[in-house]
Amino acid sequence: MAEVAIQISRLKKYFGKTKAVDDISLEIRKGEVYGFLGPNGAGKTTTIRCLMDFLRPDAGKISVLGLDAKTDSVAIKERIGFLPSEMYLHGDWTGQEHTEFIQAVRGKKFNFKTLAEKFDLNLHVKAKHLSTGNKQKLGIVLTLMTEPELLVLDEPTRGLDPLLQNTFYKCLGEFKQKGATVFMSSHILPEIERVCDRVAIIREGKIVGIEVVEEFKQSALHLVTIRFENPADRSTFSLPSAEKADELPDGLILKVKGDLDPLIKELAKYKIKDLELDHSSLEDLFLSFYKEKKS
Length: 295
Description:
Elements: E1 4-15, E2 18-29, E3 33-37, H1 44-51, E4 59-64, E5 67-68, H2 73-77, E6 80-83, H3 95-106, H4 112-118, H5 132-144, E7 150-154, H6 162-177, E8 181-186, H7 189-195, E9 198-203, E10 206-212, H8 213-216, E11 221-228, H9 233-236, E12 242-248, E13 251-257, H10 261-267, E14 272-279, H11 282-294
Parallel strand pairs: 3-8, 3-9, 6-7, 7-8
Antiparallel strand pairs: 1-2, 1-4, 4-5, 9-10, 11-13, 11-14, 12-13
């Protein structure tokens, strides 16, 4: 049985009458990339702040790398890399000065320049002059540069363009290959599908499902817009796995669950003018997920 990197047991955190985290339990194994998926306000950041001992839970217990998140907080922070949803940076420091500070605190030199080059980050600009995306890049460099055995990431790709998102995903893959563990929150379904081994779905402070990502993909909904060269084809097209969401003068909007291969094979029989593919919203996914669980 794989060792456990993070153990969260019966965690509760309330703010007045608001149940931000309502009796959740999670187990993240060493060496896996674990996704924490939910809409904004679902309780992801509150859970992570309790894990980091920035917030004290109202109930429950958290163990990180075999240590107690509360009593061993300092020792834990020496072994992990943490990227918050909102990175605090010293406005008058350059990126270089931030990295030097991390090295001074850790008492060790790190190869941060390679990371900065990967993310196309200029280390000589003061933080107060950085764009939102560049601040996020600096935060990522500061988090990854110490090569920690555990990464805790809260909405890590916020503000990054698609190319840099891909660079970040490759970095996570490299960390995993070295045996590190990654616990990352996101509200972006394709991101979780792409990089995670398992995923916990949280909504309104409660865990509504824990899935292996490959199995979870079978629950994923795709929104497909098809425009036919011959508008009459709209009436003849049919696919059992597709639900018609709307009709267009020359096409259809479909909700397709899981594997897209049957759709592609069926579309090959028609002349297609345009095809758009997107994930349905998380809300659609949650509704589908609840419906399955109740049936």
